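Lab meeting tomorrow. Please check the following:
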Amino acid sequence: MAKGKKSQDPPAPEENLYKLLGVESDATPDAIKSAYKKKALKHHPDKVSEENRDEAHRLFQQIALAYGVLSDERRRKVYDRTGRTDDAFSEDGDFDWMDFYREQLSAMLDTRAISDFKKKYQNSDEEKRDLLAAFEAAEGDMDGVYESVMLSNVLDDDERFRAIIDEAIAKGEAENYKLYAEEPEAKRTARRRKAQKEAKEAERLAKKLEADKKKKAAGASKSQAPAGEDDLLALITKRQQDRGQGFLAQLEEKIWKS
């Protein structure tokens, strides 16, 4: 929160709201929603290392503020006209910033939404673009690719990813980097072994998540998430712990249900 502001007040933005979300001023509502999800997931305070948490809180508040204004047609019109966020919220007498902020924090950790997103994302054009962008950024190093492409799994995706990359290389859409073309078999084997170990640890974490969830939900009527969703969350958690980051940090696109 900005210094001197009441806790229920939105933080003062440090830059243009459209710039905060990385969209143009004529962006469609869907584009704004998609950009918000991407930014919010990346900077969620629970998905970064401890030393970066304060900064992530600050950034998440800024991003949530931008979305709170630009996702509402009336607020957006006022903001476009005045360039002031306080004007945009001026007619919302019952708007509670902290309630809105907490909702955004909570929604980004919804395991069902993650599971739904995974189904839509994998094998999509968006995933292909992300894969080829990661391949270029890593200059053909598949370790870097798997570190970058969200929800990727060496055990499940290696053959599929390589088919996409090989096709792109054949079409001249990607460079045939030496690190990729001449990758030693020993390195591929080591990567798979590491993934197998990771999967076993994720299974252990999933069981712990389920046990913890049952303890918290004891006596409540709320249904439990399917075990598969716990497995997914546990796997992502394990991967992010290994990278020294908070869980889910690599998810960079929509996970909320449309």
In short: Residues 112-242 form one domain. The chain has 13 helices and no strands.
